[in-house]
Design a protein that fits this description.
The chain is an alpha+beta fold and 96 residues long. It contains 3 helices and 4 strands, in the order H-H-H-E-E-E-E. Strands 1, 2, 3 and 4 form a 4-stranded antiparallel sheet that branches. A hairpin with a 2-residue loop joins strand 1 and strand 2. The radius of gyration is 17 Å and the shape is elongated. InterPro entries: Ricin_B-like_lectins.
Length: 96
């Protein structure tokens, strides 16, 4: 995901602490196959995906102290509330 991995880590903070091992073989395969960067995929295959901007970042205004905005599992049109941040992403939005 090249330069977009920080979006994943913002969504799933615990993933930062999981070792993913040696990926040299995968990087070499990517080079040999002349794979396009993830930005190409976003521009040409999935252009409707909205990428967050760097201004404030995802969730920057959605945390107050140790409380985070939480959707409580509701998908749409549900209530939200402030709950203690649990740093696992999921239903919560927060800053780093």
């Amino acid at each position: 995901m090249d330069d977009y991995k920080h979006f994943y880590y913002n969504a799933v903070p615990l993933a930062r602490n999981i070792p993913y091992g040696n990926i040299q073989d995968r990087l070499e395969l990517k080079r040999k196959l002349h794979c396009k960067p993830f930005s190409w995929y976003l521009k040409n295959v999935y252009p409707e995906l909205v990428i967050p901007t760097s201004e404030g970042g995802p969730g920057s205004a959605l945390k107050q102290g140790s409380a985070c905005l939480d959707s409580m599992g509701h998908l749409l049109d549900g209530n939200v509330g402030l709950y203690p941040c649990h740093d696992t992403g999921g239903n919560q939005c927060q800053t780093e």
